[in-house]
């Protein structure tokens, strides 16, 4: 016997479907295509980018997490348990994006240039058991060798080599993850390098970075297991005046070396959008990575909301038919709200935006544009904002057997009561 809520969702869906039909929109195909897109959830939302090295270092490097909501994961088992719940609340099959500081070394201090696949074996086992693809990142921050503000572009060859070795090790770990899970792992390099104040020489650090990256990528690794990616940034706290790995630097680097380029939504001028960069970038690169984030005045990494920027990002992927060439990663961290809710809200929003982008009246819009009928194009683009997307979304959640509407919050609140509230600030070993 269907519940009254289920009945109401199904009835509303049927009425909504008629409306979409009149515009020639195929809802079944939109739902199917949306379900085929995997989003890579960033592990660092679960513990405020702390990681499990236990080296007592502050985050630094221009990264800042604010808030003191209780219950953050204190070890990898807790983080995996939290993630298990999040994945249950998301329609579709999704990935996990790990940073190197999330290693498990049984309490032994492992220097970052010595990390090995074995330090991630429990993550790999968990991923295999749950059929979850993995992505990876070297962690070039929150370390005594990043305190000067420079890592791969450091003037000191010893420090530079340390970070080169760390990134080489990260590629090997990425390859091991990709091989074990039978799905290529994207190993993405982001470094904080930059100057607080105006430099005299803007070129030398970039030359050093270019050479460091060439050394890191010297070894050929099977692309079936590992894909290399590089992420740019405009500025950070403490690198307001100059960032070595700027947009121009990495776009040029990625195109000349055929690497993936990572566009982070928080890493540009506030009036610039990554959605507008996608089509240009895709002309020159086979694949790219997105870090979907939300900057508020600066690269503040707020939880992504279903705003115009997010719709535009999803539209740029879907309209360009890029779903198989663009990898979607998330990058936000909010410690002022329940962290599991933060992951769930942000990821469900990304999926909603992808569903909405698959529900556009493509033929009509293309025809108007081809005929230079921009009046009808604008009228239709405004009209479709009023389509009953919520009814399709509710049905989509029913179809993929995950909580509909805000019901997922009941599960998060129960988990907060049963699990999170029992966690104290002490490190659980
Ligand atoms: C943890 C960081 O957010 C991440 O590595 C990087 O992608 C970034 O965006 C730094 O601003
Ligand atoms: Mn990022």
UniProtKB/TrEMBL annotation:
Main localisation = cytoplasm
Question: What are the subcellular locations of this protein?
Answer: Cytoplasm
Cofactors (names): Mn(2+)
UniProt record, GO biological process: L-lyxose metabolic process; rhamnose catabolic process
Q: Which reactions does this protein catalyse?
A: L-rhamnopyranose = L-rhamnulose
Entry note: cofactor: Binds 1 Mn(2+) ion per subunit.
Pfam families assigned to the protein according to its UniProt record, in alphabetical order: RhaA
An example of a GO molecular function for this protein is:
manganese ion binding
Residue positions annotated to bind Mn(2+) are 267, 299, 301
Provide the Gene Ontology terms for cellular component: cytoplasm
Q: What class of enzyme is it?
A: isomerase
The pathway entry for this protein reads as: Carbohydrate degradation; L-rhamnose degradation; glycerone phosphate from L-rhamnose: step 1/3
Cite the entry's keywords alphabetically: Cytoplasm, Isomerase, Manganese, Metal-binding, Rhamnose metabolism
In terms of InterPro entries, this protein maps to: L-rhamnose_isomerase, Rhamnose_isomerase, Xyl_isomerase-like_sf
Keyword Cytoplasm appears in the UniProt entry:
yes
Q: What is its EC number?
A: 5.3.1.14
Its biological purpose = Catalyzes the interconversion of L-rhamnose and L-rhamnulose.
Report the NCBIfam families cross-referenced here: PRK01076.1 (NF002203), rhaA (TIGR01748)
Give the HAMAP family listed for this entry.
RhaA
Family of the protein in this entry: Belongs to the rhamnose isomerase family.
Per its record, how is this protein called by name? L-rhamnose isomerase
Q: Which organism is it from?
A: Poriferisphaera corsica
């Amino acid at each position: 016997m269907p519940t009254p809520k289920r009945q109401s969702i199904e009835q509303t869906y049927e009425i909504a479907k008629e409306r979409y039909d009149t515009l020639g929109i195929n809802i079944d195909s939109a739902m199917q295509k949306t379900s085929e897109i995997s989003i890579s959830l960033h592990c660092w939302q679960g513990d405020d980018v702390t990681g499990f090295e236990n080296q007592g270092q502050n985050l630094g490097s221009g990264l800042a997490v604010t808030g003191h909501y209780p219950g953050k994961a204190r070890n990898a088992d807790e983080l995996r348990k939290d993630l298990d719940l999040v994945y249950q609340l998301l329609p579709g099959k999704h990935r996990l994006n790990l940073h190197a500081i999330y290693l498990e070394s049984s309490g032994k201090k492992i220097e970052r240039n010595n990390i090995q696949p074995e330090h991630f074996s429990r993550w790999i086992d968990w991923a295999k058991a749950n059929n979850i693809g993995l992505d990876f990142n070297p962690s070039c921050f929150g370390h005594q060798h990043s305190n000067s503000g420079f890592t791969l572009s450091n003037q000191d060859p010893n420090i530079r080599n340390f970070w080169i070795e760390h990134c080489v090790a990260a590629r090997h770990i990425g390859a091991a993850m990709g091989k074990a899970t039978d799905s290529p792992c994207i190993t993405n390099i982001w470094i904080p390098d930059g100057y607080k104040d105006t430099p005299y020489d803007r070129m030398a650090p970039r030359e050093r970075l270019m050479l460091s990256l060439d050394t890191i990528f010297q070894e050929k690794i099977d692309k079936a297991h590992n894909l290399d990616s590089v992420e740019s940034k405009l500025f950070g706290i403490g690198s307001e005046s100059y960032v070595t790995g700027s947009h121009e630097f990495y776009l040029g680097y990625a195109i000349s070396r055929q690497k993936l380029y990572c566009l982070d939504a928080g890493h540009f001028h506030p009036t610039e959008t990554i959605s507008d960069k996608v089509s240009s970038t895709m002309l020159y690169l086979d694949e790219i990575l997105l870090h979907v984030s939300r900057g508020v005045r600066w690269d503040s990494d707020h939880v992504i909301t279903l705003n115009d920027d997010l719709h535009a990002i999803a539209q740029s992927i879907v309209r360009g038919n890029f779903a198989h060439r663009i990898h979607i990663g998330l990058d936000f961290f909010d410690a002022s709200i329940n962290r599991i809710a933060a992951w769930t809200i942000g990821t469900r929003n990304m999926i909603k935006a992808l569903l909405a982008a698959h529900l556009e009246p493509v033929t009509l819009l293309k025809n108007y544009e081809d005929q230079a009928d921009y009046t009808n194009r604008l009228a239709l683009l405004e009209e479709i904002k009023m389509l009953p997307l919520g009814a399709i979304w509710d049905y989509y959640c029913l179809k993929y057997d995950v909580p509909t509407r805000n019901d997922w919050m009941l599960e998060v609140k129960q988990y907060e009561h049963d699990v999170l509230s029992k966690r104290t600030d002490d490190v659980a070993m």
